[in-house]
Amino acid sequence: MLRRVVRQSKFRHVFGQAVRNDQCYDDIRVSRVTWDSSFCAVNPKFVAIIIDASGGGAFLVLPLQKSGRIDKVYPTVCGHTGPVLDIDWCPHNDLVIASGSEDCTVMVWQIPENGLDTPLSEPVVVLEGHSKRVGIVAWHPTARNVLLSAGCDNQIVIWNVGTGDAMINLEDMHPDVIFSVSWNRNGSLICTACKDKKVRVIDPRKAKVVAEKDKAHEGARPMRAIFLADGNIFTTGFSRMSERQLALWKTENMDEPISVQEMDTSNGVLLPFYDPDTSIVYLCGKGDSSIRYFEITDEAPYVHYLSTFSTKEPQRGMGYMPKRGLDVNKCEIARFYKLHERKCEPIIMTVPRKSDLFQDDLYPDTAGPDPALEAEQWFAGKNGDPILISLKDGYVAGKNRDLKVVKTNVLESSKPATKPENAVIIQKQATPQPSIKMEDKLEEVLREFKSLRDRVILQDRRIANLEEQVAKVTM
User: What digits encode the pLDDT tens for the residues 75-95?
Assistant: First the structure.
C-alpha cells in the first residue's frame, strides 16, 4: 500500500485576500507606542483602533460599513490621560469595550448603537487598582461582566465590572512584566507568559499556580501563550539563537513540549490568533508583512503548516473578527484587520468550495453572545462552557442591553448592603408603568450623582498626594 505523501485537510487550500481600496479605512494615525499588543479589536458591529493622540490616550471606534477616508475630526473615545495600550470588546455585548492605559487605569465604555457622533470622554466605569501602566485587558469568555487586567506592576486583577470592584488580585505570582494572559475555553483557568521566561497555568479563584514551565522559550524577547480548546497551550517565542519558535504543551505535563518548530530570524513578536472551531492558529508578526497559519491536530507533528498570506506592507497591529461576524455564504473562515501606518485593511481568509450551500463541516456551532454565567456565580466557584449557536442562517445580532454599574458606596456604610441580584450590570427593562419608570429614572440619577461624588473624592485624594509629592521635591 502506498504511503500518503500529502496530509489530507479541508483547510489545505485556505487562501487570503485583501479587500479593495474603497473597503479599507484610510487616513488613520495608528498608535506608535512601543507595546506589543494588537492595537485593534473587532466585533460584528465595530472596528476599534488605538491611535496617536496628543494630550492623553484615545482610540477610534468605526462602524464596519464606514470604510473609506476617515475625517481627522472623527470623534474618538478619549477619556484616558495616558496612551492606550490595549483594548478588548466584551464577548457578551457588542456595544461594550474595555481599555487599559499608561495612566494605570482600566476603563469600560458603552458605544452608542450607531457609533459615535461626538467624542466619548465619560466611561461607564473606571477601574483603579494598578500602580503602573495597564498593558493587557481580557474579558471572561463565558461569565458576564468579569474582566481581567494585567499591568507592569506584575499583578493581575480580576474585576466585577457590575460593581466596579476588584474581586481577585494575583500579586506575588509574577516577578517580572507579564507579556500575555489567556483564558481557557470555560474561563476556569488562565495561562500567562512572563519576562522571567516562565509559562504559568493559574487557577485565579484559588490564587494557585496549577502548572508552570521554566524557559518555555530560551530567548530574551517577548513570549506569547494561549489556551487551545482541548486544554493544551500554544506558545510563541524566541530560541537562544534569536530564531522565532512556536511550541505546543500539555498542561498535565509541561516538562517537554509536544511539538516545537523553528520559524525564521525576524525580531517581531508573533501574535497568535486561535479559532477553536477549526483548530487553526494564525501567526501575525509585528513588523512582518505576512500571516502564517497552522492546523493543530492529534497526529504528529501536531502543528501542521498550512500556508502564508503575504503582502508588501508591514503590519503595525492586527484585529481578528469573531466567527459570528463572518460571511458564511462565501466560505469565509477568518477575517483580519491589518493596521498599516495610516490605514486599516481587512483581509479575508476563504476555503475554496464550488457549492453555494451552507458548509457545516467548516462552521460547527460556535460561541454565541449569551453568557453562561453571571459574575457572582463565577466568583462563587461555578463554571460554564460557552453557549453555542449555529451559523446556518447567518448570525443575527440581538438587542444589546445598556451597561449599568451599581457601585457599593463605602461612604454610606449605614445603608443596607445591595442585594446581589441588584448588582448585575445589565438589568432587564421594567414593565411599562409610568410610576415605575419615574422611580427607575430617579434611581439612575441618584446612582450617577453618587458616582460623580465618588470621583470628586478620588480626585481630591489624588490632588492631595500630588501636592505632598511636589512639597517633598521642593524641600
Answer: 999 999 999 999 999 999 999
